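Collaborator request, handled under Task 6.
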Amino acid sequence: MPEITIPTFDELMNPLLAALNALGGSGSVEEIYSKTVDIVQLPEDVLAQLHDPEKSSLTEVGYRLAWARTYLKKFGLLENSSRGIWSLTEKARGLDTVDSGEVVRFVRALDKAEGSKKRPADQTARELTEQEGWKEKLSSVLTQKLDPAGFERLVQRLLRESGFIHVEVTGRTGDGGIDGKGIARIHGFMSFHVLFQCKRYKGSVSASEIRDFRGAMVGRADKGLFITTGSFTPAAIKEATRDGAPPIDLVDGDELAEKLKEFALGIRTETVERVSVDESWFEGI
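Structure tokens returned to the collaborator:
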């Protein structure tokens, strides 16, 4: 059986566009990733490969999809909001496929016209680093500098900040893979008993790990919550929402980073003050 290689970033452009069309024209990075790999149908071992195991939990496929998004944005087919939602532009609507070679040539010419002295791939990597660099650094801190007990306490604090009550860490009791429990309050009226597992991991959580977690929580809670610094394989995502089974919510490294940023837990957002002169104001004096 021939070895399956990871598609190059330009080979992922049309599956990415197909994924966005299937999602209704817009989607988060996670939704786009999941739908694209479902379309391409890559095996789990390929999807589990990390781009840089020493620095990040980002998979190689995820990294190349980020390249594809950047090139398609420069070509005018994609746009993204400040909340991280990517969508098709008017130019892309109704477009089934694109000539990826034409996209690459256009972006390279654009970079050259803008006076870039670096190769387009390097420039794209730099742009990705600027956008997601803090997440890579956070991933390194969580997986290398924070011990398991510290990570459990961080998750406990995050859940409390998110509105959970009676959050307890039980991970050191050998309770079948359950690291803790809590009660999620919804608008002050409804509540759900939740068991959670938190995994400091650079790789991808598999479907079998989701099944093991579900087996440990059956009959003991209304919902499960699996939090990882890494990612989830497509099979794990499907297993978490399998019909007839207790639901398990998944939080990957990217979503965890965004939540820590939202509640300012170890993440500091700095804004630059911009001063401008309103000439019309002076005219009215």
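The cover message to the collaborator said: "The mean pLDDT is 84. The CA atoms of residues 15 and 168 lie 43 Å apart. Please let us know whether this matches your experimental observations."
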